[in-house]
Amino acid sequence: MAERSTAAVDVADNSGDEPLTAKADQATADGVAQNPERDTENNEAQGSGGTESPGQKASPPELHSGHKLARRYRLEECVTRLDGFSSWRAVDEKLRRAVGVHVLPADHTRARSVLAAARSSALLGDPRFVQVLDAVEENDLVYVVHEWLPDATELTTQLSSGPLEPHDAYQMVSQVSSAMAAAHREGLAHLRLNPNAVLRTSSGQWRIRGLAVNAALRGISSDIPQRTDTESIGALLYATLTQRWPYENDAYGLSGLPKGVGLIAPDQVRAGVHRGLSELAMRALANDGATASRHESACTTPEELVKAIGEMPRIRPPEPAFTAPPEYQRTTYQQGTYGRPAPRATQPMQPPPPPLQSRTGKALKWAVSALLIAALGLGSWQLADALMDQGSSDDTNNTQTTDGGDKGGQKGRVTAGKLLEIDSAAEFTPSGSGIQEDEVSLAVDGKPGTAWVTPQYRGYPNFGNLAPRKEGSGIIVDLGKVRTVSRLSVDFYRGGQTVEILAGGEDGSGTSDLGDYPERLTSLEQTGGNLSAKLKEPVKTRYVLVRITSLPPDAGADTYRGGISEIRIYGS
Predict the structure, then answer these.
(1) Which pLDDT does position 443 carry in this prediction?
(2) What are the distances in angstroms from CA 434 to CA 117, 183, 468, 518?
(3) What are phi and psi of 239, to 5 degrees?
(4) Strands 525-526 and 73-82, bridge-based pairing
(5) What pLDDT, on the 0 to 100 scale, is given for residue 525?
(6) Residue 416 near residue 486 (C-beta atoms within 8 A)
(7) Residues with pLDDT less than 70, the chain
(8) At what angle do helices 302-311 and 166-185 cross, to 10 degrees?
(9) Is the Cα dihedral 68, 52, 233, 436 positive or negative?
Protein backbone atom coordinates (compact mmCIF):
# COMPACT_ATOMS: atom_id res chain seq x y z
CA MET A 1 0.00 0.00 0.00
CA ALA A 2 2.94 2.31 0.69
CA GLU A 3 4.14 1.79 -2.87
CA ARG A 4 0.75 2.62 -4.28
CA SER A 5 0.59 5.87 -2.33
CA THR A 6 3.86 7.08 -3.80
CA ALA A 7 2.78 6.49 -7.37
CA ALA A 8 -0.66 7.98 -7.66
CA VAL A 9 -0.62 11.68 -8.35
CA ASP A 10 -3.15 12.91 -5.84
CA VAL A 11 -6.32 13.02 -7.88
CA ALA A 12 -8.72 10.68 -6.11
CA ASP A 13 -9.71 12.62 -3.00
CA ASN A 14 -12.46 15.21 -3.18
CA SER A 15 -10.20 17.87 -1.75
CA GLY A 16 -8.79 21.24 -2.62
CA ASP A 17 -11.30 22.37 -5.25
CA GLU A 18 -12.03 25.45 -3.16
CA PRO A 19 -8.99 27.75 -3.05
CA LEU A 20 -7.10 27.59 0.23
CA THR A 21 -7.44 31.33 0.55
CA ALA A 22 -10.93 30.80 1.87
CA LYS A 23 -11.49 32.26 5.32
CA ALA A 24 -10.60 30.05 8.26
CA ASP A 25 -14.18 29.94 9.46
CA GLN A 26 -15.46 28.61 6.13
CA ALA A 27 -15.87 24.87 5.64
CA THR A 28 -13.63 23.14 3.10
CA ALA A 29 -14.04 19.78 1.39
CA ASP A 30 -10.37 18.79 1.61
CA GLY A 31 -9.73 15.08 1.85
CA VAL A 32 -13.26 13.77 2.47
CA ALA A 33 -13.44 11.02 -0.17
CA GLN A 34 -14.61 7.77 1.34
CA ASN A 35 -12.14 5.67 -0.66
CA PRO A 36 -9.47 7.90 -2.24
CA GLU A 37 -7.85 5.11 -4.23
CA ARG A 38 -11.01 3.53 -5.68
CA ASP A 39 -13.44 6.43 -5.68
CA THR A 40 -15.69 6.27 -8.76
CA GLU A 41 -18.34 8.75 -7.63
CA ASN A 42 -18.84 12.15 -9.24
CA ASN A 43 -16.98 15.04 -7.70
CA GLU A 44 -19.58 17.13 -5.94
CA ALA A 45 -17.10 19.92 -5.25
CA GLN A 46 -16.26 20.38 -8.91
CA GLY A 47 -18.17 23.59 -9.35
CA SER A 48 -15.63 25.85 -7.66
CA GLY A 49 -12.73 25.11 -9.99
CA GLY A 50 -14.08 22.95 -12.83
CA THR A 51 -14.91 24.00 -16.34
CA GLU A 52 -17.51 21.40 -17.39
CA SER A 53 -21.08 20.55 -16.44
CA PRO A 54 -22.13 17.03 -15.32
CA GLY A 55 -23.77 16.41 -18.67
CA GLN A 56 -20.46 16.93 -20.50
CA LYS A 57 -18.40 14.40 -18.58
CA ALA A 58 -16.83 11.70 -20.73
CA SER A 59 -16.92 8.08 -19.68
CA PRO A 60 -13.59 6.60 -18.57
CA PRO A 61 -11.73 4.53 -21.17
CA GLU A 62 -12.24 0.77 -20.95
CA LEU A 63 -8.82 -0.35 -19.77
CA HIS A 64 -7.66 -3.35 -17.78
CA SER A 65 -4.53 -4.77 -16.19
CA GLY A 66 -2.16 -6.00 -18.87
CA HIS A 67 -3.28 -3.40 -21.44
CA LYS A 68 -0.35 -1.75 -23.24
CA LEU A 69 -0.06 1.88 -24.30
CA ALA A 70 2.27 2.69 -27.21
CA ARG A 71 3.37 -0.97 -27.10
CA ARG A 72 5.53 0.05 -24.16
CA TYR A 73 3.63 0.93 -20.99
CA ARG A 74 1.91 -2.14 -19.50
CA LEU A 75 -0.85 -1.23 -17.05
CA GLU A 76 -0.56 -3.16 -13.79
CA GLU A 77 -2.95 -1.75 -11.17
CA CYS A 78 -5.62 0.94 -11.24
CA VAL A 79 -5.15 3.30 -8.30
CA THR A 80 -7.78 5.89 -9.28
CA ARG A 81 -10.91 5.84 -11.43
CA LEU A 82 -12.73 9.14 -11.15
CA ASP A 83 -14.54 11.77 -13.20
CA GLY A 84 -13.76 10.33 -16.62
CA PHE A 85 -10.07 9.56 -16.11
CA SER A 86 -8.06 6.82 -14.40
CA SER A 87 -4.59 6.56 -12.87
CA TRP A 88 -2.47 3.41 -13.01
CA ARG A 89 0.70 1.87 -11.76
CA ALA A 90 2.43 0.60 -14.89
CA VAL A 91 5.69 -0.84 -16.18
CA ASP A 92 7.84 0.76 -18.86
CA GLU A 93 8.90 -2.44 -20.66
CA LYS A 94 11.49 -0.60 -22.73
CA LEU A 95 13.44 0.74 -19.72
CA ARG A 96 12.23 -1.94 -17.27
CA ARG A 97 11.06 0.44 -14.60
CA ALA A 98 7.83 1.27 -12.79
CA VAL A 99 5.95 4.38 -13.87
CA GLY A 100 2.62 6.04 -13.16
CA VAL A 101 0.10 6.77 -15.93
CA HIS A 102 -2.99 9.03 -16.10
CA VAL A 103 -5.40 8.08 -18.91
CA LEU A 104 -8.46 9.93 -20.19
CA PRO A 105 -10.44 9.97 -23.45
CA ALA A 106 -9.18 12.32 -26.15
CA ASP A 107 -12.65 13.92 -26.32
CA HIS A 108 -12.67 14.66 -22.57
CA THR A 109 -13.25 18.37 -22.00
CA ARG A 110 -9.99 18.60 -20.02
CA ALA A 111 -7.81 16.54 -22.35
CA ARG A 112 -6.24 19.59 -24.04
CA SER A 113 -5.45 21.34 -20.75
CA VAL A 114 -4.00 18.12 -19.25
CA LEU A 115 -1.65 17.69 -22.22
CA ALA A 116 -0.56 21.33 -22.06
CA ALA A 117 0.03 21.16 -18.28
CA ALA A 118 2.01 17.92 -18.54
CA ARG A 119 4.26 19.24 -21.30
CA SER A 120 4.90 22.49 -19.46
CA SER A 121 5.75 20.59 -16.27
CA ALA A 122 8.12 18.29 -18.19
CA LEU A 123 10.03 21.30 -19.55
CA LEU A 124 10.79 22.53 -16.01
CA GLY A 125 13.12 19.56 -15.35
CA ASP A 126 13.52 20.41 -11.66
CA PRO A 127 14.49 17.27 -9.64
CA ARG A 128 12.48 18.51 -6.66
CA PHE A 129 9.31 17.64 -8.60
CA VAL A 130 8.13 14.18 -9.65
CA GLN A 131 9.03 14.31 -13.34
CA VAL A 132 6.61 13.97 -16.24
CA LEU A 133 8.20 11.45 -18.62
CA ASP A 134 5.74 11.45 -21.54
CA ALA A 135 2.49 13.13 -22.64
CA VAL A 136 0.81 11.57 -25.69
CA GLU A 137 -2.47 11.59 -27.60
CA GLU A 138 -2.96 8.23 -29.36
CA ASN A 139 -5.86 5.99 -30.40
CA ASP A 140 -8.55 8.29 -28.98
CA LEU A 141 -6.71 8.36 -25.64
CA VAL A 142 -4.63 10.98 -23.86
CA TYR A 143 -2.14 9.64 -21.35
CA VAL A 144 0.50 11.23 -19.14
CA VAL A 145 3.41 9.13 -17.87
CA HIS A 146 5.28 10.19 -14.73
CA GLU A 147 7.89 8.91 -12.32
CA TRP A 148 7.02 6.23 -9.78
CA LEU A 149 8.87 6.54 -6.46
CA PRO A 150 8.59 3.27 -4.52
CA ASP A 151 11.07 4.47 -1.88
CA ALA A 152 9.11 7.65 -1.05
CA THR A 153 6.49 8.20 1.66
CA GLU A 154 3.59 10.65 1.55
CA LEU A 155 3.47 13.39 4.16
CA THR A 156 -0.02 12.07 4.99
CA THR A 157 1.49 8.74 6.05
CA GLN A 158 4.21 10.40 8.11
CA LEU A 159 1.72 12.57 9.97
CA SER A 160 -0.39 9.56 10.91
CA SER A 161 2.17 8.72 13.60
CA GLY A 162 2.49 12.25 15.00
CA PRO A 163 3.92 15.72 14.27
CA LEU A 164 7.36 16.03 12.69
CA GLU A 165 10.45 17.09 14.59
CA PRO A 166 11.26 20.82 14.21
CA HIS A 167 14.27 20.09 11.99
CA ASP A 168 12.21 17.86 9.67
CA ALA A 169 9.42 20.45 9.46
CA TYR A 170 12.02 23.15 8.71
CA GLN A 171 13.54 21.04 5.92
CA MET A 172 10.09 20.34 4.46
CA VAL A 173 8.94 23.96 4.31
CA SER A 174 12.37 25.14 3.05
CA GLN A 175 12.56 22.65 0.19
CA VAL A 176 8.89 22.88 -0.81
CA SER A 177 8.92 26.71 -0.75
CA SER A 178 12.13 26.89 -2.77
CA ALA A 179 10.78 24.43 -5.35
CA MET A 180 7.47 26.25 -5.75
CA ALA A 181 9.26 29.60 -6.07
CA ALA A 182 11.28 28.13 -8.95
CA ALA A 183 8.09 26.76 -10.56
CA HIS A 184 6.30 30.11 -10.35
CA ARG A 185 9.28 31.85 -11.94
CA GLU A 186 8.61 29.61 -14.95
CA GLY A 187 4.88 30.40 -14.88
CA LEU A 188 3.76 27.06 -13.36
CA ALA A 189 1.44 26.64 -10.38
CA HIS A 190 0.29 23.58 -8.44
CA LEU A 191 -3.09 24.61 -6.93
CA ARG A 192 -3.52 21.19 -5.21
CA LEU A 193 -0.54 21.24 -2.87
CA ASN A 194 -1.63 19.08 0.07
CA PRO A 195 -0.11 16.29 2.24
CA ASN A 196 -0.87 13.72 -0.47
CA ALA A 197 1.21 15.67 -3.00
CA VAL A 198 4.38 15.97 -0.87
CA LEU A 199 6.72 12.97 -0.63
CA ARG A 200 9.83 12.25 1.40
CA THR A 201 12.40 9.96 -0.19
CA SER A 202 14.58 7.47 1.65
CA SER A 203 17.51 9.90 1.35
CA GLY A 204 15.58 12.60 3.24
CA GLN A 205 14.78 14.81 0.23
CA TRP A 206 11.28 16.23 -0.24
CA ARG A 207 9.60 15.85 -3.66
CA ILE A 208 6.38 17.40 -5.02
CA ARG A 209 4.12 15.54 -7.43
CA GLY A 210 1.38 16.69 -9.73
CA LEU A 211 2.74 20.15 -10.62
CA ALA A 212 0.10 21.74 -12.90
CA VAL A 213 -1.21 18.26 -13.91
CA ASN A 214 -3.29 17.61 -10.76
CA ALA A 215 -5.17 20.85 -11.17
CA ALA A 216 -5.69 20.26 -14.91
CA LEU A 217 -7.11 16.77 -14.29
CA ARG A 218 -9.62 18.23 -11.86
CA GLY A 219 -10.33 21.41 -13.84
CA ILE A 220 -9.08 23.69 -11.07
CA SER A 221 -7.86 27.21 -11.74
CA SER A 222 -7.09 30.30 -9.65
CA ASP A 223 -6.85 34.04 -10.25
CA ILE A 224 -4.12 34.25 -7.59
CA PRO A 225 -2.04 31.08 -8.07
CA GLN A 226 0.99 32.28 -6.09
CA ARG A 227 -1.09 33.16 -3.07
CA THR A 228 -3.02 29.87 -3.33
CA ASP A 229 0.19 27.81 -3.36
CA THR A 230 1.73 29.89 -0.55
CA GLU A 231 -1.26 29.33 1.71
CA SER A 232 -1.09 25.62 0.87
CA ILE A 233 2.54 25.55 2.05
CA GLY A 234 1.44 27.28 5.25
CA ALA A 235 -1.21 24.60 5.77
CA LEU A 236 1.41 21.87 5.25
CA LEU A 237 3.72 23.45 7.82
CA TYR A 238 0.82 23.88 10.25
CA ALA A 239 -0.03 20.18 9.90
CA THR A 240 3.57 19.03 10.44
CA LEU A 241 3.82 21.08 13.65
CA THR A 242 0.45 20.20 15.21
CA GLN A 243 -0.90 17.08 13.43
CA ARG A 244 -4.04 19.18 12.84
CA TRP A 245 -5.52 20.61 9.63
CA PRO A 246 -5.79 24.43 9.95
CA TYR A 247 -9.47 24.54 8.94
CA GLU A 248 -12.66 23.39 10.64
CA ASN A 249 -13.19 20.26 8.52
CA ASP A 250 -11.13 17.09 8.99
CA ALA A 251 -8.89 16.25 6.03
CA TYR A 252 -6.05 13.88 5.04
CA GLY A 253 -6.51 11.82 8.19
CA LEU A 254 -6.05 14.95 10.36
CA SER A 255 -8.54 16.52 12.72
CA GLY A 256 -9.63 20.06 11.92
CA LEU A 257 -9.64 23.00 14.32
CA PRO A 258 -12.53 23.43 16.78
CA LYS A 259 -15.49 25.12 15.15
CA GLY A 260 -16.03 28.78 15.82
CA VAL A 261 -12.58 29.61 17.27
CA GLY A 262 -10.92 30.70 14.03
CA LEU A 263 -7.29 30.19 13.11
CA ILE A 264 -5.14 29.43 16.19
CA ALA A 265 -1.35 29.67 16.13
CA PRO A 266 0.37 26.24 16.18
CA ASP A 267 2.16 26.97 19.47
CA GLN A 268 -1.28 27.51 21.05
CA VAL A 269 -2.62 24.22 19.68
CA ARG A 270 0.22 22.03 20.89
CA ALA A 271 2.87 22.51 23.56
CA GLY A 272 6.53 22.53 22.55
CA VAL A 273 6.04 23.83 19.00
CA HIS A 274 9.01 25.78 17.64
CA ARG A 275 8.09 29.48 17.95
CA GLY A 276 9.77 30.58 14.71
CA LEU A 277 8.07 27.87 12.63
CA SER A 278 4.73 28.67 14.28
CA GLU A 279 5.08 32.32 13.22
CA LEU A 280 6.10 31.27 9.71
CA ALA A 281 3.01 29.06 9.30
CA MET A 282 0.73 31.92 10.36
CA ARG A 283 2.42 34.35 7.97
CA ALA A 284 1.77 31.95 5.08
CA LEU A 285 -1.86 31.28 6.11
CA ALA A 286 -3.05 34.71 4.93
CA ASN A 287 -6.80 35.34 4.78
CA ASP A 288 -8.17 38.19 2.65
CA GLY A 289 -5.00 40.22 3.11
CA ALA A 290 -4.88 39.74 6.88
CA THR A 291 -2.84 37.34 8.97
CA ALA A 292 -3.04 35.91 12.47
CA SER A 293 0.70 36.37 12.92
CA ARG A 294 1.56 38.41 15.97
CA HIS A 295 4.46 40.37 14.53
CA GLU A 296 5.40 40.05 10.88
CA SER A 297 3.44 40.80 7.70
CA ALA A 298 1.84 38.04 5.65
CA CYS A 299 3.70 36.07 2.95
CA THR A 300 1.60 35.89 -0.21
CA THR A 301 4.09 34.35 -2.69
CA PRO A 302 6.52 31.42 -2.41
CA GLU A 303 9.38 33.85 -3.06
CA GLU A 304 8.40 35.89 0.02
CA LEU A 305 8.18 32.69 2.02
CA VAL A 306 11.69 31.64 0.92
CA LYS A 307 13.00 35.06 2.01
CA ALA A 308 11.26 34.74 5.41
CA ILE A 309 12.79 31.28 5.91
CA GLY A 310 16.23 32.65 5.06
CA GLU A 311 15.89 35.29 7.79
CA MET A 312 15.19 32.62 10.43
CA PRO A 313 18.00 31.05 12.48
CA ARG A 314 18.80 27.66 10.98
CA ILE A 315 17.29 24.76 12.93
CA ARG A 316 19.87 22.07 13.56
CA PRO A 317 19.03 18.35 13.61
CA PRO A 318 18.73 16.76 17.05
CA GLU A 319 21.85 15.21 18.53
CA PRO A 320 21.85 11.42 18.12
CA ALA A 321 21.05 9.56 21.33
CA PHE A 322 23.55 6.87 22.29
CA THR A 323 22.63 4.16 24.76
CA ALA A 324 25.31 2.97 27.16
CA PRO A 325 26.58 -0.51 26.29
CA PRO A 326 25.77 -3.25 28.81
CA GLU A 327 28.34 -3.82 31.50
CA TYR A 328 30.99 -6.32 30.48
CA GLN A 329 30.35 -9.70 32.04
CA ARG A 330 33.15 -12.20 32.34
CA THR A 331 32.18 -15.78 31.58
CA THR A 332 33.39 -18.82 33.47
CA TYR A 333 35.41 -19.76 30.40
CA GLN A 334 37.23 -16.38 30.49
CA GLN A 335 37.82 -16.82 34.20
CA GLY A 336 39.66 -20.06 33.54
CA THR A 337 37.12 -22.44 35.11
CA TYR A 338 35.54 -23.88 31.94
CA GLY A 339 35.36 -27.69 32.18
CA ARG A 340 36.81 -27.95 35.69
CA PRO A 341 35.76 -26.88 39.19
CA ALA A 342 36.69 -23.44 40.43
CA PRO A 343 39.97 -23.34 42.37
CA ARG A 344 39.85 -23.11 46.12
CA ALA A 345 40.57 -19.76 47.73
CA THR A 346 44.21 -19.40 48.80
CA GLN A 347 46.05 -16.96 51.01
CA PRO A 348 47.18 -13.81 49.18
CA MET A 349 50.82 -13.93 48.08
CA GLN A 350 53.30 -11.66 49.84
CA PRO A 351 54.66 -8.94 47.51
CA PRO A 352 58.35 -9.34 46.56
CA PRO A 353 60.86 -6.97 48.14
CA PRO A 354 61.68 -3.73 46.21
CA PRO A 355 64.41 -4.30 43.58
CA LEU A 356 68.03 -3.05 43.94
CA GLN A 357 67.89 -2.71 47.72
CA SER A 358 71.01 -4.79 48.34
CA ARG A 359 74.56 -3.33 48.53
CA THR A 360 75.32 -4.46 44.97
CA GLY A 361 72.08 -2.92 43.71
CA LYS A 362 72.89 0.45 45.30
CA ALA A 363 76.36 0.50 43.68
CA LEU A 364 74.79 -0.28 40.32
CA LYS A 365 72.34 2.61 40.69
CA TRP A 366 75.18 5.08 41.43
CA ALA A 367 77.12 3.89 38.38
CA VAL A 368 74.14 4.32 36.05
CA SER A 369 73.45 7.80 37.46
CA ALA A 370 77.04 8.90 36.81
CA LEU A 371 76.88 7.67 33.21
CA LEU A 372 73.63 9.57 32.61
CA ILE A 373 75.08 12.81 33.97
CA ALA A 374 78.16 12.47 31.76
CA ALA A 375 76.02 11.78 28.68
CA LEU A 376 73.82 14.82 29.35
CA GLY A 377 76.85 17.07 29.73
CA LEU A 378 78.38 15.88 26.47
CA GLY A 379 75.10 16.31 24.60
CA SER A 380 74.60 19.84 25.93
CA TRP A 381 78.11 20.85 24.83
CA GLN A 382 77.57 19.51 21.29
CA LEU A 383 74.16 21.23 21.00
CA ALA A 384 75.58 24.60 22.07
CA ASP A 385 78.44 24.29 19.57
CA ALA A 386 75.98 23.50 16.74
CA LEU A 387 73.78 26.47 17.58
CA MET A 388 76.75 28.84 17.54
CA ASP A 389 77.79 27.56 14.09
CA GLN A 390 74.22 27.96 12.79
CA GLY A 391 74.01 31.52 14.10
CA SER A 392 77.12 32.58 12.19
CA SER A 393 75.77 30.89 9.03
CA ASP A 394 72.41 32.69 9.38
CA ASP A 395 74.18 36.05 9.65
CA THR A 396 75.93 35.39 6.36
CA ASN A 397 72.74 34.26 4.64
CA ASN A 398 70.81 37.27 5.92
CA THR A 399 73.36 39.59 4.47
CA GLN A 400 73.18 37.89 1.11
CA THR A 401 69.33 37.94 1.09
CA THR A 402 69.26 41.64 1.88
CA ASP A 403 71.65 42.36 -0.97
CA GLY A 404 69.54 40.24 -3.31
CA GLY A 405 66.40 42.03 -2.19
CA ASP A 406 67.94 45.39 -3.09
CA LYS A 407 68.50 44.03 -6.58
CA GLY A 408 64.91 42.82 -6.97
CA GLY A 409 65.59 39.18 -6.15
CA GLN A 410 62.43 38.89 -4.05
CA LYS A 411 60.10 40.29 -6.71
CA GLY A 412 57.28 37.93 -7.77
CA ARG A 413 57.38 35.70 -4.69
CA VAL A 414 53.80 34.52 -3.81
CA THR A 415 52.99 34.36 -0.11
CA ALA A 416 50.29 32.11 1.28
CA GLY A 417 48.31 35.11 2.55
CA LYS A 418 45.74 35.31 5.29
CA LEU A 419 42.29 33.73 5.34
CA LEU A 420 39.93 36.19 3.64
CA GLU A 421 36.49 36.90 5.03
CA ILE A 422 33.63 35.81 2.76
CA ASP A 423 30.89 38.41 2.50
CA SER A 424 28.22 36.13 0.99
CA ALA A 425 27.68 33.11 -1.23
CA ALA A 426 25.11 32.11 -3.84
CA GLU A 427 24.34 29.05 -5.91
CA PHE A 428 25.65 28.91 -9.49
CA THR A 429 22.40 28.70 -11.47
CA PRO A 430 23.16 29.26 -15.19
CA SER A 431 19.66 28.13 -16.18
CA GLY A 432 17.97 30.44 -13.68
CA SER A 433 16.75 27.66 -11.37
CA GLY A 434 18.67 26.47 -8.31
CA ILE A 435 18.75 23.07 -6.65
CA GLN A 436 19.58 23.64 -2.96
CA GLU A 437 19.77 27.45 -2.64
CA ASP A 438 18.69 27.42 1.01
CA GLU A 439 21.78 25.40 2.02
CA VAL A 440 24.49 27.51 0.33
CA SER A 441 25.52 29.16 3.60
CA LEU A 442 26.59 25.75 4.96
CA ALA A 443 29.57 25.78 2.57
CA VAL A 444 31.00 29.04 3.98
CA ASP A 445 30.06 28.83 7.67
CA GLY A 446 33.50 27.70 8.85
CA LYS A 447 32.17 24.31 9.95
CA PRO A 448 33.49 21.35 7.93
CA GLY A 449 30.76 19.15 9.41
CA THR A 450 28.04 21.01 7.45
CA ALA A 451 27.69 20.99 3.68
CA TRP A 452 25.74 22.18 0.65
CA VAL A 453 24.59 18.86 -0.84
CA THR A 454 22.96 18.32 -4.22
CA PRO A 455 19.82 16.20 -4.65
CA GLN A 456 20.18 12.63 -5.84
CA TYR A 457 20.29 12.32 -9.64
CA ARG A 458 19.57 9.12 -11.54
CA GLY A 459 21.10 7.64 -14.66
CA TYR A 460 23.84 10.17 -15.42
CA PRO A 461 26.61 11.76 -13.28
CA ASN A 462 26.26 15.12 -15.08
CA PHE A 463 23.28 16.11 -12.90
CA GLY A 464 20.99 13.51 -14.47
CA ASN A 465 21.77 14.87 -17.97
CA LEU A 466 19.07 17.48 -17.39
CA ALA A 467 19.03 20.46 -19.73
CA PRO A 468 18.97 23.11 -16.93
CA ARG A 469 22.16 21.54 -15.49
CA LYS A 470 24.18 21.31 -18.73
CA GLU A 471 26.72 23.79 -17.32
CA GLY A 472 26.75 22.08 -13.93
CA SER A 473 26.22 23.76 -10.61
CA GLY A 474 28.27 25.00 -7.70
CA ILE A 475 28.76 28.02 -5.45
CA ILE A 476 29.72 31.63 -6.16
CA VAL A 477 31.68 33.29 -3.33
CA ASP A 478 31.53 37.09 -2.89
CA LEU A 479 34.55 38.57 -1.05
CA GLY A 480 32.74 41.90 -0.58
CA LYS A 481 35.27 43.87 -2.64
CA VAL A 482 38.15 43.23 -5.01
CA ARG A 483 40.84 41.27 -3.14
CA THR A 484 44.17 39.69 -4.08
CA VAL A 485 43.73 35.90 -4.04
CA SER A 486 46.86 33.73 -3.70
CA ARG A 487 45.63 30.37 -2.38
CA LEU A 488 42.40 28.33 -2.21
CA SER A 489 41.20 25.29 -0.32
CA VAL A 490 37.84 23.55 -0.86
CA ASP A 491 36.53 20.57 1.13
CA PHE A 492 33.94 18.44 -0.67
CA TYR A 493 30.96 16.45 0.60
CA ARG A 494 32.59 13.39 -1.00
CA GLY A 495 35.44 12.64 -3.37
CA GLY A 496 35.15 11.85 -7.07
CA GLN A 497 33.54 15.10 -8.25
CA THR A 498 34.76 16.84 -11.42
CA VAL A 499 35.49 20.44 -10.39
CA GLU A 500 37.15 23.64 -11.55
CA ILE A 501 37.66 26.98 -9.77
CA LEU A 502 37.20 30.20 -11.73
CA ALA A 503 37.52 33.89 -10.87
CA GLY A 504 35.68 36.88 -12.27
CA GLY A 505 37.47 39.94 -13.50
CA GLU A 506 38.10 42.93 -11.25
CA ASP A 507 34.80 44.37 -12.44
CA GLY A 508 32.98 41.00 -12.47
CA SER A 509 29.29 41.08 -11.63
CA GLY A 510 29.12 37.73 -9.84
CA THR A 511 26.20 36.46 -11.90
CA SER A 512 25.54 32.87 -12.94
CA ASP A 513 26.78 33.57 -16.48
CA LEU A 514 29.83 31.37 -17.03
CA GLY A 515 31.33 34.07 -19.27
CA ASP A 516 31.72 36.37 -16.24
CA TYR A 517 34.54 34.14 -14.91
CA PRO A 518 37.46 34.40 -17.40
CA GLU A 519 40.25 33.54 -14.94
CA ARG A 520 40.82 29.77 -14.54
CA LEU A 521 42.43 29.17 -11.13
CA THR A 522 42.43 25.34 -11.37
CA SER A 523 41.95 22.95 -14.26
CA LEU A 524 38.72 20.97 -14.73
CA GLU A 525 39.50 17.55 -13.23
CA GLN A 526 38.24 14.90 -10.85
CA THR A 527 39.14 15.63 -7.23
CA GLY A 528 39.28 13.82 -3.91
CA GLY A 529 37.80 15.08 -0.66
CA ASN A 530 39.83 18.32 -0.82
CA LEU A 531 41.11 20.62 -3.56
CA SER A 532 43.96 22.98 -2.54
CA ALA A 533 45.77 25.26 -4.95
CA LYS A 534 48.54 27.85 -4.48
CA LEU A 535 48.47 30.26 -7.42
CA LYS A 536 51.67 30.98 -9.33
CA GLU A 537 50.60 34.60 -9.67
CA PRO A 538 48.08 36.37 -7.40
CA VAL A 539 44.71 37.17 -8.99
CA LYS A 540 42.65 40.25 -8.21
CA THR A 541 38.93 39.48 -8.08
CA ARG A 542 35.81 39.88 -6.00
CA TYR A 543 33.97 36.73 -7.11
CA VAL A 544 35.23 33.13 -7.06
CA LEU A 545 33.22 30.27 -8.62
CA VAL A 546 33.60 26.63 -7.49
CA ARG A 547 31.95 24.83 -10.44
CA ILE A 548 30.95 21.14 -10.38
CA THR A 549 30.23 19.41 -13.71
CA SER A 550 30.05 15.73 -12.70
CA LEU A 551 28.94 13.96 -9.50
CA PRO A 552 30.25 10.77 -7.84
CA PRO A 553 28.08 7.66 -7.35
CA ASP A 554 25.64 7.70 -4.41
CA ALA A 555 24.59 4.80 -2.21
CA GLY A 556 21.82 3.60 -4.52
CA ALA A 557 22.25 1.85 -7.86
CA ASP A 558 22.78 4.22 -10.81
CA THR A 559 22.42 7.31 -8.61
CA TYR A 560 24.74 10.29 -8.16
CA ARG A 561 25.17 13.06 -5.58
CA GLY A 562 27.84 15.57 -4.54
CA GLY A 563 28.33 18.79 -2.64
CA ILE A 564 30.70 21.27 -1.00
CA SER A 565 31.52 21.27 2.73
CA GLU A 566 33.74 24.34 3.13
CA ILE A 567 35.37 27.01 0.93
CA ARG A 568 38.46 28.87 2.19
CA ILE A 569 40.20 31.65 0.23
CA TYR A 570 43.56 33.19 1.21
CA GLY A 571 45.19 36.39 0.11
CA SER A 572 45.25 40.06 1.03
Answers:
(1) 92
(2) 22, 11, 9, 22
(3) -65, -40
(4) unpaired
(5) 93
(6) yes
(7) 1-61, 286-296, 321-359, 361, 384-416, 507-509, 556
(8) 140
(9) positive
Q: Which residues pair with 543 in a beta bridge?
A: 478
Cβ(190)–Cβ(232) below 8 Å: yes
The string of DSSP codes covering 500-566 is EEEE--TT----S-GGG--EESS-SEE--SEEEEEEEEEEEEEEEEEEEEE--B-SSTTEE--EEEE
Whether pTM exceeds 0.90: no
Q: Judge residue 106's burial from the number of C-beta atoms within 10 Å of its C-beta, 0-12 exposed, 13-18 middle, 19 or more buried.
A: middle
The pLDDT of residue 347: 57
d(CA 420, CA 485): 9
Q: What are phi and psi of 240, to 5 degrees?
A: -70, -25
The pLDDT of residue 83: 82
Measured between its terminal Cα atoms, the distance across the chain in Å is: 60
Predicted pLDDT of residue 4? 34
Q: How many Å apart are CA 180 and CA 177, to the nearest integer? A: 5
pLDDT of residue 422: 92
Is the CB of residue 207 less than 8 Å from the CB of residue 155?
A: no
Report d(CA 569, CA 364) in Å as an integer: 62
CA 452-455-458 angle, to 5 degrees, is 145
CA dihedral 41, 46, 50, 56 (to 10 degrees): 50
